[in-house]
């Protein structure tokens, strides 16, 4: 297995430079329609990013072990020396990311992990760093790629490429790009929609590098009205621990209060807005005929 080179590590200085340049751009070229930066919000995002990195130091070892075991039993191994292998991996990984991302919006226990990334009411490059502290929910989604014969180091490399690309989507400073780019690739305009809490923008534009999956699976929405960033019910705190775990706490409260196992399963496995149907009113007793 080849040595793992993580593009994220090499990109960190670029991230820091771009974040600083964007922050300075708001200071010297303000835009009344753009929210820019707020110190406490940006500090929370940075704290979440550092926590994500620290947790992943250990978690990635478990991921590599599982993917390696799956790769070992794969019926064939795709050669990393063949450029077509990398082309296939690019499209396969991006499709996996689409469904990983979509299901993390549609299944509440997964949303409890992903909600962290949507918890800021600002939208800037620091928002890209607001990452989950429970990355364990991602493990099953990329596992089939190892079973298809992609080497674990290749899968992890392509995941990092996607993560680096997506960092630059989190900005209001870039308007729409040329039409061919907007048609095929995920762009800041498309991703602003994804972070909007406007009704028409909810659960739209899940793509990683490509936007074609959203067009294919009918989850695409172009940017129209100005996005209102954040959640439909914002968490209202800058405490990183509360941001990281507030939805798990809410899910646990709902599960404990549910009157039946069917309703408990619904809270865990159905969408974030799901609530049990109210009990049917009692059937009135038949009128007495005397």
UniProtKB/TrEMBL annotation:
Its main location: membrane. It is a multi-pass membrane protein. Keywords: Lipid metabolism, Membrane, Oxidoreductase, Transmembrane, Transmembrane helix. The chain crosses the membrane at residues 7-29, 49-72, 141-169. InterPro entries: Fatty_acid_hydroxylase (IPR006694), Sterol_desaturase/TMEM195 (IPR051689). It is found in: Endomembrane system. The keyword Oxidoreductase applies. The keyword Oxidoreductase applies. Residues 275-290 have a biased composition (Pro residues). Residues 268-290 are annotated as: Disordered. Residues 86-218 form the Fatty acid hydroxylase domain. It comes from the Bacteria. PANTHER family: ALKYLGLYCEROL MONOOXYGENASE, STEROL DESATURASE-RELATED PROTEIN. This is Sterol desaturase family protein. It comes from Actinomadura parmotrematis.
